[in-house]
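Quick illustration, no need to memorize.
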Amino acid sequence: MMHVVEKPFTCTECNKSVKQRSGLKTHQMIHTGEKPFTCPDCNKCFIELPRLKRHQMIHMGEKPFTCSECKKSFRDLSGLKRHQMIHTGEKPFTCAQCNKSFSHLSTLKSHQMIHTGEKPFICVECNKSFSHLSTLKSHEMIHTGEKPFTCAECNKSFRQLANLKRHH
């Protein structure tokens, strides 16, 4: 028997459907860029309070969950469990289109955009669209001139951390 979950609330921007009105409001913040919860330590902003609370553990240095394989520590049990899939090779999420498997549901959903061509994140400056919010955010720096990653040795700045690392 298959259970069908009703998702009556649909985003007008990207047609994603969710179960609750509150979930839709939270989802729509992806499109508006609204992040009402701010970390008092570093001013990083978040869409949801639980994400802020999880982030704040960074500042406390608390990582009580340790991997028995490699001794890497994590702030929460879900982070440890996600990490442990590296060691087990477990990939429980499979793409119905191409049978490629993934360790995380979020990675599968991201991958599926390849097949659908879905690009719900749109640059307000030039209307270019992207499959991932992170790619849009990186692209927007072209318009703002922002280069947040700076070499400590020569002060050269970069838009992406990978480019700074390659510079070294």
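Residues 94 and 115 are 13 Å apart (CA to CA).
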